[in-house]
Amino acid sequence: MTKRQLKDLDYIEDRIVFYTGIDIKKNTRKREYVYARMVFIKIMREEFNINMKTIAKYIGRSHCTIVYSMKNWDTIKNYEPEYYKVYHYILLEMESEQIFIGKKPIGERRDIDKDILKVREAIKQTIERLQIA
Predict the structure, then answer these.
(1) What's the CA gap between 7 and 72, in Å, rounded?
(2) Which terminus of the chain has a lower count of CB atoms within 10 Å, N or C?
(3) CA-CA distance, 3 to 16, in Å (whole number)?
(4) How far apart are CA 20 and CA 13, in angstroms?
């Protein structure tokens, strides 16, 4: 596992935790954990082209888990709209970061929410200055 792959894995894991509150490395077969792992695996395979062995090692599972997740992605797509939304939120966040920094996130822990809050604060301050004048 390269440093870049590790940064990418950490970045997406962080986003999964942010949106779901679920630790994908936890050793459990509860449905919500399985679905969160499936979202993580789908993003890592499709967007970052990380191989199954590397993903499996990172989440502490066998490569069979990765194969199962990719094979059963339609379960999420068709029957679990919350996790399908998380998948799309993360993809949208990655696209918006590309706009902000001009490239794929590659593990950078920039949080778009913080950037948006800074812009909102700057707008509030400008409005306050205009109202005073």
Answers:
(1) 26
(2) C
(3) 20
(4) 10
Q: How many residues does the chain have?
A: 133
Contact of 133 with 39, CB cutoff 8 Å: no
State the average pLDDT over residues 67-82.
92
Query: pLDDT per residue over 82-125, tens digit each?
Result: 999 999 999 888 887 765 444 454 555 556 667 677 777 777 77
Other beta carbons less than 10 A from residue 54's beta carbon = 18
Rounded to 10°, the helix 52-59/3-20 angle is 60
- The label of the residue with tokens 């993809």 reads 91
Helix-helix angle 31-46:3-20, to 10 degrees: 140
As a whole-number percent, the residues of the chain with pLDDT over 70 amount to: 83
The structural domains of the chain, ordered by start, are: 3-107 (1.10.1750.10)
- Please state, in angstroms and rounded to a whole number, the distance separating the CA atoms of residues 69 and 58: 15
Q: What is the distance of C-alpha 9 from the center of its chain?
A: 9
> Tokens in use for 80?
């679990």
Average the pLDDT over 50-65 and give the result: 94
Q: What is the mean pLDDT of the chain?
A: 84
The pair of structure tokens assigned to 89 is: 């939120």
